[in-house]
Amino acid sequence: MKLYNTLTRQKEEFIPLEENKVKMYVCGPTVYDYIHIGNARPYIVFDTIRRYFEYKGYSVDYVQNFTDIDDKIINKANSEGVSMEVISNRYIDEALKDAKALNVKEPTYAPRVTQEIKEIIEMIKTLIEQKNAYEVDGTVFFDTTSFKDYGKLSGKKLDELEIGSRIKLDEAKKNETDFVLWKPKKEGEPAWQSPWGEGRPGWHIECSVMAKKYLGEEIDIHAGGEDLIFPHHENEIAQSECCNHKPFAKYWIHNGFINIDNEKMSKSKGNFFTVRDIAKEVPYDVIRFFILCGHYRAPINFSREAVEASKKSLDRIKNCVKNLNHLINSTLIEKTTDEEKNCDILENIKKYKHNFEQEMDNDFNTSNAITCIFEIVRLINSNVSEKSSKKFLQTLLDEIMSLCNVLGILYETEQENNNIDEKEIEELIVKRQEAKKNKDYKLADEIRDSLKEKGIILRDTSAGVVWSKE
Ligand code: AMP
Ligand code: ZN
Known about the structure:
By secondary structure, this protein is of the alpha/beta class.
């Protein structure tokens, strides 16, 4: 299995630190608003990568944090006249709802900064003792010149950064590139006691601390959006490697941006759509599928037309699976005389499954992996009918579902649950087939019409009855 490592700028073979185990840390959102489609991308792609590792037999320890201390959260709290926790708790809850609806598996641990202050202070103390950090009037800075590898992830050089920096020189800092580990309390802001007076942590230290606490000093994979490479991940490496005297993460993986008109979708630019808003127009599973249709490192241009096209594509897979389920529920045939033909079809499916795995083994190419699923859909659609045996149909269903489960597509979304009960539809279709067999066309038509009233359209095809929503 190969993955692109930002640290070495090449695709590398994945070799875990511990056999059959993956320790993975993903930077989570700052919780001051609903997550937008851009924020949903790391949720979905790294969840898919996790699922693929699990499919390959690894046990994955997956940590994703919530940044619940930040200027933006404090500003929002002040504007609403509530505490920081009210805001962060509200948007953590909302982010969890979106993640669940997008079929993102729960992380093994989902720590919050406000609950890790003790450990953060400990790490800062160690960095000061080791002369990697210094305090000036209640502010603690990391001394970037104390870490000889500073810049190794982003490829930036310290001297170039110093010269290139346009930020006004902070008098308290020794070097322009030094960054804050601890900042002193400001009026009206939440603060914690520390050896450097009341204050709160800077942003970068939280991830070094949480990765160490929940996964250990050395981890396999550290992930996040590509905007985090510098300075956030560069600074995490400096903190962790100076503190622990060990390489921090073996592989660094970064997702590309979701853009709108070729500009990064972001809250500050105002060019964003929340997951919640888009989910009013299309089901959540379409959002997930839309994101996985692109390679995780490539940019994706967001548009309503592109999402609509994804919906149509996903429907093709859904209809194939629905039809299989329907045939399995209605067939009475246990065995067929077509064993030889069935074997050929299953052989071909194995071939596409192998291709799917090869695409995923090649830096998680979900885009090409989806193409393999479509090959399987085509093969199934042209080779099943009411004459197929239950066993054959069930094998086809198991094969296609095992690949869909790797991508986390094809699950029942709550929106669908609210509107319609799939089992009920299936039962009515079987009843209608029986009515037709008994030449009770009146009853068959009544069933078709009653489903139509609920927005369910039935089509009689050579492969059996297929239903879809209007
Ligand atoms: P934030 O809440 O801004 O810290 O972002 C949370 C996660 O979403 C980080 O991993 C970011 O890199 C990622 N992210 C933010 N905007 C985008 C975007 N437009 N496209 C892809 N990833 C993004
Ligand atoms: Zn982080």
